[in-house]
Amino acid sequence: MSKNLLRIDNLYASVENRHILKGINLEIKPGEVHVLMGPNGAGKSTLANVIMGDPRYQVERGRIYFDDVDISEEKTDARARRGIFLSFQTPEEIPGVTVENFLRAAKSAQTGVNQKLLPFRKELRETMAELQMPVEYASRYLNVGFSGGEKKKNEILQMEVLKPRLVILDETDSGLDIDAVKTISEIVGRYKNRNNAILIITHITRILENLPVDYVHILSEGHIVKTADASVIELIERDGFASILT
User: Fold this and answer.
1) Chain centroid to CA 128: how far?
2) How many CA atoms are closer than 13 Å to the CA of 22, on its beta-carbon side?
3) Range name among 56-60, 130-134, 224-228 with the lowest pLDDT average
4) Would you identify the CATH topology of the domain 6-91+165-245?
5) Alpha helices, DSSP H only, in the chain?
6) Is the pTM of this model over 0.90?
7) Which stretch of DSSP H or E encloses residue 55?
């Protein structure tokens, strides 16, 4: 049996003195696709941010392991260099920094190798074409003036460029039209391999149509109350979370 890429043991976490996560246990192995679902306010985004090391959240108890290394005390940038990536619900706008310069600097920081301009630009443009993003977006300031859908595509562009081992997509499909969801789903599906893993937080199951989902976790009031295979998604779509939580 392959070792875990991510292991979370009895994790409790809070933000602004509000207890959100209450004993989370989760294991994700290389090659797996996990889906996290649950009602609003269940703690899904909190879990994603705690895995990423967001300093706004306080870990009260429990440990987080990545590749069997305890990263519970590591800062966000150290976790990113290890290969953890989080696509945000609401990506930040960064005036004065172009998409290309941001990604080139991020890739250099992640790998420790300075990315040469022309080869990097060639790869970036090829990836943007896959995402059906106009090439001129590379010279625009990061997310400034982008629509909601364009911001989400830009997050997937970052994933493709940085090539993380653990991809966490936090409602990346929200605000996208059907064609954009299909494009992103196909790209995420192609990205998956036996050496990486994907954790998708979603309310809209269209993004899962092209992905072989291994496990679905239902989060409620800070607890994972059920773990099942992909068949539970159809039950939730038909009957809502009440069918799971009662």
Assistant:
1) 19
2) 10
3) 130-134
4) Rossmann fold (3.40.50)
5) 44-52, 76-82, 99-111, 117-130, 148-162, 178-191, 231-239, 242-245
6) yes
7) none
